[in-house]
Amino acid sequence: MKSIGVDVGGTFTDLIYCDLDTGSLEINKVPTTPDDPSKGVMEGIHGLLAKVGRKPDEIDFVFHATTTATNAVLEHKGAEAGMITNEGFRDILHIGRHQRVEHYSIRQELPWQSRPLIKRRNRMVVGGRLRPPHGEEIEPLDEDAVRRGAQALKEAGVQSVAICFLFSYLNPAHEDRAREIVAEILPDAFVTTSSFVSPQFREFERFTTAALAAFIGPKVRTYITHLEASLKAAGISGDLRIMASNGGVATAGMVSEKPTLTLLSGLAAGVLAGAWLGEIARRRKLITFDIGGTSADIGIIVDGKLAETDSRSTSIAGFPLLSPMIDIHTIGAGGGSIAHIDRGGAFRVGPRSAGAAPGPAAYGRGGAEPTVTDANLVLGRLDAHDFLGGGMKLDVDAARRAVDGLATKLGLGLNETAEGILTVINANMANAIRSRTIQKGIDPRGFSLVAFGGGGPLQGADVAAMLEIPEVIVPPYPGITSAMGLLTTDFKYDAVRTAFEVSGAVDLAKLNRSLGQMEAGLVARFEADRIALDHVKFSRSGDLRYVGQGYELRVPLPEGEIAEANLPQVWEAFHAAHAGEYGHAFPANPIEIVNIRVSGVGLVPKLARPAAPPGGSLAKAKVRTSPCVFRVGGKLQSFETTFYHRRDLPVEEAFPGPAIILQTDSTTLVPPGASAEVDQTGNIIITLGAAQ
C-alpha cells in the first residue's frame, strides 16, 4: 500500500511518502499557501511523486492533517456566523458560567466576551421549548420565527448558522426542523446544530462547540472541497482521509459536516508520532514538543498511552469544547512569532505570527518585524545557505535589521535582544509544559522531551534545561514528524450521549439500548467508509461522578451487556479513578453515570519500524565551524560551533556541544555542556549537562 501523509502548518506544508510493503520513505517540504492551502499541498505532492518516481494513480491513500481550523480560531479569522436559539437565551454565549477562569483576577480576559464567535446582533431567538429528563415538547417550535430569523441572517450576510436549543441532547427534533428551514432560506450557508455536533448536557459548552463549528465550518468545507477536486484533477484516485483530534482519521465528508473534529488535527498527528517513536526508542514517559511557524504544541504520553481531555479542560484558544480529543496544549509560540513591546512597555514574543506570508524578515518576502527565526539567525544558530537543505536562502542582513530595530527601542545590543527573544519564547513554552506536568502533579524530570516540527529541535534543549528534563529526542525527520504520525494511526470514530443514571436505580435496559444504538451508528459509519468490520474494535466508557459533584471522570464500561453482575466493577473503577485524581474516594456515596461513550477503531496498515541508519563519521559529517552566541553562566558568550550534516553522522558515537545539525526539514541545536549521539533507529539523543 502506497500512502502520502500531508501536514499543513502555518508556515510550511510537510509531506512524506511511504510504501508500506517495502518500507521505503521520502519526504518533501514546501511553503504553505495561506490564500489556498490546497495549492501548497498539491505542489508538495507533485514534488514528492517526482522524487519517488511514482504516478498519481499508484497512490492508495492521502492522509492529511491541517491547522486550517486551529489557526482560524487562534487568530480569530473565521466566518461571519449566525445563531438561532430559544427565547431568553440569546446571551448564553456571552455569559458563560458563574465560575471564573481565574478566580482572583479582576482583569482577566474572557474570550467569549472580548472576541465572540457569533456577534450578538447575529443571534436570533425563537419560541419553542423541550423539558428534561426525557425531552418532551412543552412548547412547539415557532417555525415562522425561525424563517424570520434565517431571513434576517441572510440579509446580514452570514456564511454559517449554528442552531442551539435547550435540552436538544435529549431530543433533537426542534433543532433538526429549524435546520431544514434555515437550509431552505440559506442554501449555500454552512448550517449545523448543537445536538449533531455534541449531544451532551451543559448548554454553554454545547452551544460554544456549535458556535466553533459555525465559525470554522465554511473555511474547512471550502478547503476540503478544493483539495478533493485538486487531487482528482491530478489523477490521484486514492482515498483522502483527514486527521481528527481524537487520534484517528475520518473521511473528508465527515470532517466537512463536523469541522470541530479537525481543531487539533495536525497536533494530534504529532503526538501519535511521538508515541510511536517513543515505543521504538523504548521510552515510556514522553513529552511531545512540536514547534511550527505559528504555534507550539505539547502532549503527554505515559506507558504508551495518550492523555485525553475531559469536559473540565477541553478548550481551544480559551473557548470550551465538547469533542473527543487527545490532551494537547497549544500556545501561540513558533518560529514566526513576532517579538514586540506591548502597550504597557513589556517585552513580549507572540502570539502574533509572521506566518508564511510575509514570514520572518530572514525569508526576504517583505517581513520587517523581528521573529524567533530571525533571532536564531542573528545568533548564528541557522545556516543561511543550508536552510531547507539549500532550498531557501536566508537574508542575514534583513534579520539583523529587524532585530536591531527592536534592540534600539529596548536600549540593548543586537545579540542581547536576539538572545532575549529566545529566552522569552523558551520560557513561554516551558511554562506551558509546567501547566501540563508540574501543575498536575507530574514530575517532568522523569520524562524525555521529543522535539520536532521545524523549530522543536532548535529550541528543545534550552526548554528541557529550564525544566530539568535530562534528555531530548529528535526524530529522524523532525520537520515532517506530524506527517509521519498520520501513517501510524487508524480510523477512529466516537459516539457520546448523555445518560444520567444513578447507582442503585440504573435502568439497565435503557443503558444497554443506548450503547447498542451508538455502536450500530458507528458500524454504519465504518461500512460507509468501506472498513471491514472484522478489522474494527469497539470500546465503551462512561463519564461518572458522585451525586452532587460538578465534573466527571472517565472510566471503562464492560464489553457486551451491562448487567447487575458486572455493574459493581464500574463503581469500583470510578472509586479508584477518583482516588487517583483527588487522593480520596467515598465508597458509600451514590454514583451518577452522566455520559456514555463508544469508540470504534478500524485497523489499517501502519508505518514500519525504521531501518538503522547507514552511519558515517564525524569527520565526514562536519561542514564547518563558526561562532554562535549562547548564554552560559548568566553571560552571553561566543563559542566556536561545529556544523554537521545529519545524514553523515555516525551511529552510537557521542559528540559534544556546541553543535548545529543540519538537515532538509529542520535544524537541531546541541548547546554547550550537552552531548548528542544517533541511536539505532536514527533518533538524535541529546543528553543535557550541568552547564545547562
UniProtKB/TrEMBL annotation:
Origin: domain of life: Bacteria
Pfam family, any one: Hydantoinase_A
Record GO biological process: glutathione metabolic process
Segments forming domain Hydantoinase A/oxoprolinase: 206-493
Stretches assigned to the Hydantoinase/oxoprolinase N-terminal domain: 4-185
An example Gene Ontology CC term for this record: cytosol
Designated name of the protein: N-methylhydantoinase A
Organism in which the protein naturally occurs: Roseiarcus fermentans
